[in-house]
Amino acid sequence: MFQKVNGIELYYEKMGQGTPIILLHGNGEEHKIFQQLIPKLAESYTVYAIDSRGHGRSTQVKELDYVTMADDIVKFIEALNLKNPILYGFSDGGILGLLLAARYPGLLSKLIISGANTKPDGIRTWYFRSFQLIYLFTRNPKYKLMVTQPNIEDEELANIRIETLVLAGSKDMIQEKHTRHIAECIPGSSLQILEDEDHMSYVYDNEKLYKIIKPFLDKKEEKTRS
Predict the structure, then answer these.
(1) What predicted TM-score, i.e. pTM, was given to this entire model?
(2) Can you tell me the distance from the alpha carbon of 72 to that of 195, in angstroms, rounded to the nearest whole number?
(3) In terms of Cα–Cα distance, which of 180, 179, 166, 176 is closest to 213?
(4) Domains (range + CATH), the chain
(5) Could you tell me if residue 40 is left (phi over 0), alpha (psi between -120 and 50 degrees) or otherwise beta?
(6) What does the pLDDT average to over 143-169?
(7) DSSP of the chain
(8) Per residue in 27-84, pLDDT tens?
(9) How many CB atoms lie under 10 A from the CB of residue 17?
């Protein structure tokens, strides 16, 4: 299915019934990375798995910007009249989740992020230099996005007042100290550093990912933090 937002069309797949949960993929991917996770979540939730602009079957664009991409999701939620959805975002999808939770209070009910960063220097140096080199030769907007953005301040993270789970692998391309700092800045958030997992290993293994996030989803929602 397609939903028009901000002058572009977002492709998404919908499955299940219950509280809405939005799944957002990482850079250069599409919703299909969650193809085993979607039906499992659909047993308890209405799942909306979206292709971000410039990815998958959504409208292709020449430039990418996290703030604009986050606004796409806001407009998507409004257009479909979704009431306080849960959001799980991997990598770039996690960055979008942080922006939504920080800048649009009251929009989401719960947030799960994995392998996300708030600054380009949150990426381990070897990976960052590699992305810079690839962008130098290809001028690919997806690599430009990773080496120039995001720019989320600690004060913004401190504004997040919903239950939040922060995930990363112990071998993630995001520096562990950066992931820990994100969790420390979000009041009352939970942190899990997954031993021997890299940036995407536990995400691509949808069964493993489901077992990690399901206990958090099953928790009764706490009152919004003051």
Answers:
(1) 0.95
(2) 34
(3) 166
(4) 2-218 (3.40.50.1820)
(5) alpha
(6) 97
(7) -EEEETTEEEEEEEEESSEEEEEE--TT--GGGGTTHHHHHTTTEEEEEEPPTTSTTSPP-S---HHHHHHHHHHHHHHTT--S-EEEEETHHHHHHHHHHHHSTTS-SEEEEES--SSGGGB-HHHHHHHHHHHHHH--HHHHHHHH-----HHHHTT--SEEEEEEEEE-SB-HHHHHHHHHHSTT-EEEEEEEEESSHHHHSHHHHHHHHHHHHHSPPPPPP-
(8) 999 999 999 999 999 999 999 999 999 999 999 999 999 999 999 999 999 999 999 9
(9) 11
- 110-114 vs 163-171, strand pairing mode: parallel
Q: What is the pLDDT of residues 182-197, one digit of tens each?
A: 999 999 999 999 999 9
